[in-house]
Write a structure and sequence with these properties.
Structural class: mainly beta
Strand content: over 45%
Number of helices: 5
Radius of gyration: 19 Å
Largest sheet: 13 strands, antiparallel
């Protein structure tokens, strides 16, 4: 994306992340793990084309964003299908607050799923350091078709507790609960077996239950440019245990061939 800043205002155009308003989406992709995250995180495409205007307060503690973008439910912008069919759009308002005692996110989104028909999503997230080594986090989002109410037809709630005694080591406990009253929102139906359900509504209709998940993730940097991670997760959909281990190595392309 391209960004132009004037004083406390910023103007952005290009492919950008939608202001979802939860800390689960605020993490870098390589710090997140699919088996450790919600159905929403796994199946909502948050990278969309569009433009946004942002404003930061003088103390730099608050940032407000208004964004116009392509919809996560539409065809990929600039594709042949996008030109042939009626493009779908999204409208977003986002807030980020960084304070000494806590951090906060909030958002309100309207996404077209067909021309003139919208999914409404409202969300809030908070992170609170409870000691020098422990941080508590919580997210909640409510969603519904053409129904901009706080408690809609579908929702996601989750909580985390992170122990980080140093910059090189952290352990995170996470648990979440997602419900669907009827309609399929932010998901698609896939008959193949997955660890995370592709449709909360389908799970509710076929198994008469909502989605509950949890696990633990460990990140360790034995060197500045090497991270090792291990994740153990489970949920009430797969009735199984998922174990994910791996490594990420960071290297400088400019120094690689020197």
């Amino acid at each position: 994306k391209l960004t132009y800043t004037v004083g406390q205002w910023d103007f952005n155009v290009g492919k950008d992340v939608l202001p979802i308003g939860t800390f689960e989406f605020d993490e870098y992709d390589f710090d997140s793990h699919y088996n450790f995250n919600s159905n929403l995180w796994n199946y909502l495409s948050v990278y969309q084309w569009g433009g946004s205007v942002g404003y930061t307060t003088a103390d730099e503690a608050n940032h407000f964003t208004a964004m116009f973008s392509s919809s996560p439910f539409g065809m990929h912008p600039f594709s042949k299908e996008w030109y042939e069919e009626c493009p779908l759009y999204g409208y977003s308002l986002g807030y980020r607050g960084e304070f000494e005692s806590f951090s906060a996110l909030a958002a309100a989104n309207m996404f077209e799923y067909e021309p003139g028909a919208f999914v409404y999503a409202t969300s809030v997230g908070v992170k609170v350091p409870v000691s020098d080594s422990f941080t508590f986090g919580a997210d909640f989002m409510s969603r519904g078709y053409d129904n901009p109410t706080l408690f809609g037809q579908e929702g996601t709630a989750l909580a985390t507790l992170t122990y980080e005694p140093s910059d090189s080591f952290s352990v995170t406990l996470k648990g979440g609960y997602e419900f669907s009253k009827d309609e399929d929102v932010f998901g698609f139906i896939d008959d193949t077996e997955q660890f995370v359900p592709t449709s909360l509504a389908l799970l509710n209709r076929l198994q008469d239950k909502n989605f509950a998940f949890g696990g633990v993730a460990v990140h360790w940097y034995p060197m500045d440019n090497l991270r090792l991670h291990g994740v153990v997760a489970t949920n009430n959909y797969s009735h199984s245990l998922s174990i994910n281990v791996g490594a990420i190595y960071y290297f400088d392309l400019f120094n690689l061939f020197r």
